[in-house]
Structures are given as C-alpha cells and as structure tokens.
Fold each of these.
Amino acid sequence: MPYEFYKVLHLLAILALFTSMGGLAMVAIRGGSDEEKKKARKPLMIIHGVSLIVIFVAGFGLMARLGMMGNGWPTWIFGKLGVWLVLGGASAMLKKPMGATWYLILPVLGAVGAALAVYKPG
C-alpha cells in the first residue's frame, strides 16, 4: 500500500480516537446512573479500541514505507509509542469524575504526538 494510504488511515484513526475520548469525558461529566453510563460508554469504548489498533498498524505501515523497520528506531518513535500508550490508558481515567481534567490533558498529548511526527527529534 502507498505511503499516502497509511497516512490518511493513521490520521482518520487519530480523529476517531480523540472523538471517542471526548465522548467518554462528556459521559463522565454528565453523570447519571451507572446503567446509563455503561450504555453510553460501550460504543465509545469500541471506537476507542479499534482506533488504537488502526493507529498502531497504520503507524508501522508508515514506518515501513519510510524505511525505518531496520536495526534501530529513531528516538521520536518511542515518544510516539509512549503517547499511544497513555492515550490507550486514558479511557480508564475517563471513567472517573475527573474526566474534565482530561479535556486539558488530551490536546497536549495530541500536540506532543503531532510535534514528534512533524519535527522527528533525535
């Protein structure tokens, strides 16, 4: 598959991931009974999980197209994997009433991931 395909797929999955996390934060903020929250969270968690998998696979596809699958990965790849792991665990934190705090943290994580991809430090 061409580089452009992987890039569009990667970006689409990132958009879906942030959309699902925004929805999860809203569910946490909104409140309601546990049953209502569970019903609202289920489709958002599915989108969250599928998005994480697609981001991972498309990211490695991009790396392969850029010839980075050799001996050593650049440092910025490890930073992107760290951001990916934190975003993966964020769904558990968005269950709590502190979900509003994640409205501040999530854009910063997105900006860090974007900066690592654009500037490729190290």
Amino acid sequence: MRKSHRVVAAGAACALAGLALYSAGAATAGQSTANSTHEPYNIGQLVKDIDTYYGTTADANGVYQASPDSPYAEDLAHLDADAKRYIDKAARKAHRHGEKPAVVFDIDDTLLLSLDYEKRYNYTYNSTTWNDYVNRADRPAVFGSPELVRYAESKGVEVFYNSGLSEAQRTAAVANLKKVGADVNLDADHMFLKDKANPPAYLGDCATPGTWNCTTVQYKSGTRKHIEDDLGYEVIANFGDQYSDLDGGYADRTYKLPNPTYFVS
C-alpha cells in the first residue's frame, strides 16, 4: 500500500479499548508510578493483546491466521450483518428512484488479511518484503468480506475497489481476490489502484505524470467523487480498515473494519 505514512503497533494501541496510555501517577502491574510523564502502553503486552484479539495461531505451514472464534471475527460478524441490512434497504430505495447504487471496498485488511505479514515482520513495513508478500497472492480473506461483496452484487449494487496497492500489483490483487471468492468486477474499470506514473486526471493537481503528492484521503475521496460525478453512481457504502479510507465524503455511509496493527494517515 500503502504504508508510506504508516504508524505501526505502538501507535495502534488506541484501537484496543483504552489501553493506549496510562495517566500520570497511575500504577500498573509491574510498573512504578510516574510523577510527570505519561508512560506508553508496554509494546510487548500490546502485541499479546493484538494476538488475543485476532486469536492468532500458526497453521501447519507456519502461516499466522486469525481465529474464526476470536473477538476480531465477532466484531466483523456484527459489522457485516449491519451492512447487509443497510445495503438491502439502500439498494431498494436507490432502484426505486432510478439511481445506480454502488459500494466501494478497500482491499488490504478490508478484503485480504495481512496478519501473517505483520506478525512475521514484527509490525514493521518494508516496501520490498511487502511487495513480495502481495505478489504471492495467497492472503486469506478478512472474515465475511467476500460474502459481503457477493451480497452487494446480488442486490443489484455495483461493486468498486479503491486501494492503495500499486498498478504493478494489479495481477496479484486480482488473483488473490479470486482465490478467496471475491470474484466480482475485478476489471480495471472497477478496481482503482495507485498509478503514480500515469495518474488519472480526475485527481487534479495533487497527481500529475511522474509526480504524486496526493494524501490517502485525497486519492480515495477523489476516486469516489469520480465514481459518483463521472460514472453516475450513488455510493451507498464505503468500506475500509483505515479512517483515511473513509474520510473525504462521497459515500452515504461508511464502515470502519477493525485493524489494530497499523495506521495509515
């Protein structure tokens, strides 16, 4: 992705129910009180909490997987159930009014889970190892997400993808999405990836050929604006694991999927 503005595990503590910081003077197990500082949450304990949240286990091949019985899976199940109810209602309303409803999905950790990469590289990012990992095209699905893609299609909703993956990673992304069952509209007209060499004109001044200055929000909201204003769709829902996937408008409703392992500004 993605992750040029990425803050890793320590910065992700806020995602875990108030565990991020202890206030000054508050003692914790094995820690002395602080007089004037705010001691960050211990990173070793944070990693344990992340593993507990995902129910992280290594399979027979040594690949780290999330557990279908984990709190992570439970949170996703609640989100997917709400999203399906909403899509059904919003799609029927849009069709009655002669509109063309659409949904937009991020890919990394919205449709394809990167937990094995995060664990294997201790929640750090390197462009070479990340590219190799993406190009293997064997990431597992984020629980429930391929089903949600197919559900939207079944309701007559156009499915689009809006990802920070690069144009050079398109083949691997398509292959991986097919492998997990999200085989809906995987053509270039529906899957928008970063093309820094030849950026689309609709992104405006922040992206010109050979020069990319778009923030994540500018890139993603600009793409949604293109889907609505230029392609004529009404984006009824936008799904992402980062707030930067969702900010900037051009979606009737947003769904933030859980991800305590990194932050993209």
Amino acid sequence: MTCLCENLIGMRADRLVAILLLLQRREQVTAAEVAEELEVSERTARRDLEALGMAGIPVYPIRGRNGGWRLAGGGRTDLSGLNADEARALFLLAGPQAQLTPEARAALRKLVRALPEPLRERAEAASDAVVLDPTAWGSRASRAPAPPHLAAVQRAVIDREELRLGYQGRGDASERTVHPLGVVAKGQTWYLIADTDNGRRTFRVDRITSLEPTGETAVRPDGFDLAQAWEDVLERVDDIRFHVTAHGTVDPELVGVLEHALGTRATFGEVTRHGVEVEMRGHDIRSFAAEIAGFGRHLHIVDPPELRAALAIVGRELIERYA
C-alpha cells in the first residue's frame, strides 16, 4: 500500500483510472495509444504505465516489435487482475469523492462497475474511508480554492517541462526559468520545488502570476527525493523563523507537554538532577518568553540571559495584574 501511494502520488486520479479502463477494454495497448486516448505526451503515458507496474498494479510490458502493455489476469472483461488490497489502494489514493473533480468522480464510478465482486463493495467503501481536513484543532475552518496555475505546475513536474514563471514574491515581481521537481501541499498552501540558475528554490504556487513551457526538458537530478527535499526546506524555514536558541532543564513529568507545545523546536537531552536537558528555539525574545512562561518553576532557563530577563518581566507583570 505504501509503495503504491509513493509511486502514484503524482498521477491524476482520472488519468490513472482511464488507463486501467483502457487496459480493460483492449487486450494490449502501446504507450502511443494511451497518449492519443488521454491527450498526453507519449513520454507521460509511458511513465504512467511504468508507475502502475512499479506500484504493484498487475500492469506489465510486452517487449519486441509487437509489444505493448497488458493487464494481468485477462483485462478484456474485468479488472480481475487486481486483488482486494490493490483495489482498495486505488480508491484510497484517489481520495474522497466529494473532493474530486466531476471528471474524476465519473471515472471512478466506471471503475467500480468494471470491478468484479467482491472487490466492488470494498472499493466503494475505500472511496469514502478518508477525509482530508487540513485545519488544525482550534483553527477556523476555511477551504481555499486551488491556485490557478496548480494543474499546469503539476503537469510540468510529471512531463519534466522547463517553465518560464512570472512570480510575485514578497518584494518586486520577477520572471525566472525553472526546472520543476515536485509539488508539496503544506496545510492549504501549495509549493513548487524547482531548480534554477541560482540553485534550488521553493515557490508558492498561488504567487505564480504567469506560466509558460519553454519547450526544453527539465533536468531532474539523479536520486532526487522530494520528501527529503521538503525536509530540507522545513529546516531552512525553521532556522529563519526561529533564530532565538535557549538552553535549560524541564521537570521529567512535563517533557511531553513541552514537546507538544513547541514541536520540533524542542530537543531533549540527558536526565540530570535538575531535570531533563532541553534546547528550544523561538521567534524573538519577548514572544518566546510569553510562550514558555506558563511552565513556571517547572522549566528552568539557563541561557540566554536576555530570555531570563524577559521571563522576569513577564512574571512581574503577572504579579502586578493578579497578585
């Protein structure tokens, strides 16, 4: 299941289903036939077919002059080549039907009708087994529309197309040529990770003002790992946002509470007679003091002295207000 999702996550659900239905109708198809049917490039069709096979769906190539791709188990009458886990995985991958495009929902309904029993009931259940809620507890519910250029960016990543972007950053608007590598959703915000002449950069998709393929092929570095690249982005952003570092100790019984409050900004060390050693990061001295003041005597700050002084000020203000 994990392998399936990792290999197919870049494919659109409606295209994935369309390929399987095409394999169902015909004994054998070529990448060129898939490309013509789905109105994509032959390279994209071949990559999708390979991804299906790599992900564990029983799609396999026939080599030679009269070669092509087939669905194991006799795909002309039904999709019996799929086992129960694979059928469920396909629908889990596609996600909640309420969040799909009308075209994707129609494709999934066709696939359900094509599935043999008892897979049909399980697949239908899987399609309603997942709800994606990007809103954290305590946050206001909001559902931002997809950025206007999201589909084109995703297509460029899959087809490995070099792009010329118009981009509105925090400063002036600019244009730049990029090699798209991957797309990441963080909450309700979409980001494009791409290589540029000035190194690897991360772009908010909703700040892309224009987009045009250059006609050149985007270069994808050997061994590129999108998940690791995003981890690198998160580390850099954290370093920029949280540049105040503090050291101290916390009572052992409150380690979990502090970790929940600060997340990855808290790193715990050895247990000493004063408590558990902890390194923490905050945005600035004043806001950091306000953030951790509620731990009172259970959290002892050793350095920096500026944070200790700010905590003392917060303490005096609370006494003056509530003593």
Amino acid sequence: MQQASHEAFRRGGNMVLLSPTGSGKTLAYLLPLLQSMDPKADEVQALVLVPSRELAMQTQQVAARAATGIRSLAVYGGRPAMDEHRQMNGLRPQLIIGTPGRMLDHLQKGNITADGVRCLVIDEFDKSLELGFQQEMQAVTEYMPAKVRKVLLSATDSDKIPHFVGEMGGAVRLDFRGEGEARERIDRYVVHSPVKDKLETLAALLRTRGRERSIVFLGYRESVLRVASFLARQGFAVCDFHGGMDQKTRERNLFRFASGCSNVLVSTDLASRGLDIPDVDNAIHYHLPQDEATYTHRIGRTARWDATGRSFLLLGPEETFSSDVDLEEYGIPERLPAVLPPDWDTLYIGRGKKDKLSRGDVAGFMMKVAGLERDDLGTIRLHDHHAFVAVRRNRVTETLARIRNQKIKGMKTIIERIKA
C-alpha cells in the first residue's frame, strides 16, 4: 500500500486512499509528501487536516523523525493559539498539521499564509465529518490556491467525497481495505452479562486477561467516568480518555497506557482512531458500536501491522448484535484470578523541551543518580514544560528516595509519582 501510494503521489494529481486502520496510512502519504517539498523555502508548502489533537501531534512526530529537513508544526485546540503563532514566527514551518478549527483560526488571523500551499491532505476525512468539522474544513479549503493538490484518506469506504473539497475528477483511488485486513488476525468473542449493568462482567473479563492491555469503548463521557471509577475501586490500573479532558490530562493518561503503566484505557470512540498505541491486546465493546464503521475502527486498535488481537462484545440480557463474522462465546470461570498490576509506573518531571531537556538527559539522570539499570527504564516522553518517564514499579519508591532534592541538568524541579 505504501509503495502504490508513493508511486501515485509521484505521478501527481489528486488522490483518495482507503486502507485499514493500523496499516500505515500516515507513512503512505507523509513520506512522499515530505520528499516533494523544498527544505530551502521558508513558506508553508503543505497543510494536513486531522480530526484530533493526538493525531496532529503523532503525525508531526513522524514527520520530525523522518529527518528530511522539512520543518513541521502541529496546531490544535486546548492550548493558546498565541503560543502557536510565536512558534510559527520562530520555526517558519513548511508543513503544518492541525485540527480543522485551529487551522482555520490561524488562516483567518493571517498567521498562516496559504499562497505557497501546493498540497492539502485531509486525513480521516469521514471522521472529521462525523465530528461536525464540515464548516471548518470547507472554510479551510476556500483559502487554498486554485491548483492545490488534494489527498484524502480514510479507513472505511466513503463514496460521499465532501462536496466542498471541490473537483476531484481524475483522482487516483487506491483501495486496500481488502488486503491484509486486521479482521483475519482478530479473535472475536461475545460475553453475556446476566444483568443490564455490565460492570461486574467487565471486571471479571479483565481479570481473566491478566496484564494484557485493553481498551474499553463506551458511547458517552459520563459512562467513561463511571466505568473507570468502578474499575479503579476494583484495583485495576485504569486511565480514562474523552474529548472533555484538558490537554495535559489527555497527554498524561495516554502516556500511562501507551507506556504500559496502565493496562486498561476506558474511552469514548475518540480512542478508536488517530492513536498510535502499539501492542493493544483487547478491544472491549462495553456499549455496542453505533454502526459497522465504528466497529471496524474500534477493533482496529488491536492487531496493528502484523500483530494479533481480540475483540470482546459485552451483551446485556436485552441486547443483540449482528456481525458478518461468527462470534465465539467467551466463558468466564467461577473462580477468578486476582487483579494484576502492570510492571511499570509513571514519574512526572516538571521540566521539558523548553528547558533544553532531552531524553538522554532524563535517561542519564535516572541511571546515574537513581541507580536504575537500562531495563528498569521504560518510555520517556518530553513535552514543552514537563516530561513523563516509565519506571519499573518495584523500583519507584527507591528511585524517588534517591533523587529527592537532586537537580536534573543543573535545574531544580518537581519529580513525583503520578497517582492513578
């Protein structure tokens, strides 16, 4: 799929790419896009619209790691637009990835000049429409030069190309949804709850899965809070995730889950797309998916690339679900294993990239000052003004005692364990 996309991109013209979740669509368009850009030109040459903050940040990180010399910036809601404008002035980005509302805001204010934009990418365009971004996306397209190239991507079929995208006649259509789909690598089960309230059934199911990583999908924010609170009281290392959270909390919770410090993520369908979290073992449907597309995206969180995974559909006494794939009955034993905590825990560091802190600085501090071995140190993630680091759970207390009142890179800062 990446090769076909690269060849189509190189030939020029508009493109529509349909490919399963987890198959690498970001690389499929981003690598040829970066190669087509001029690293010596200071103007903005390409814009990428995405439906969520997380996808904007992840895409920008992929662009940065490609090390092509193209300067990229992610823009999104949840932080001051003025700060992003200052970043633009200093960085002079050639590629900007952002959510529709924030991208439009910068265009309207003149912070982004679209005169030099040669390519507009709309990733997960069907999800953006579903989330109600049609007006913002339409307004963004009206700022584009007449001959701008358009690339649209989605994991589900959509014959309804948004009308505001404009003329797409002659566009190359690449459809890889039938090749190597994750459905062939996902074992699908149904779990029957004896009562309408499925909390106890969910907890029992999770106990049978041990330390495996699971995403529990629900339809409403209020339900996410209720289910996450219940599981926490049962002793699970759980994080919640939904659109009503502030950006810092979302970053913290996603880090805890992606780094293995929490093995249960309870979320709305916001987590069904745009999150690049490897090694998710189970997709659990607490609330039934609204349609086939939602179901497809949910189970696409597991079995990414060539991995395998499982999908569990929880059904109450009065619920039914029709599927084109037979669902195997999953039996929960009467005697359940204990809740197992994950192997990792999270430390917060009150310094970040703006303080000239690097991952190497954090790793060196943790090994030299705290005495950790390399295997005791997990994922390190830096943000502008803070950082997160995963540490073996059985070394956390000792680590905190050793680094108390110590400076990192000559700087005083707060270093503390993040409470679940």
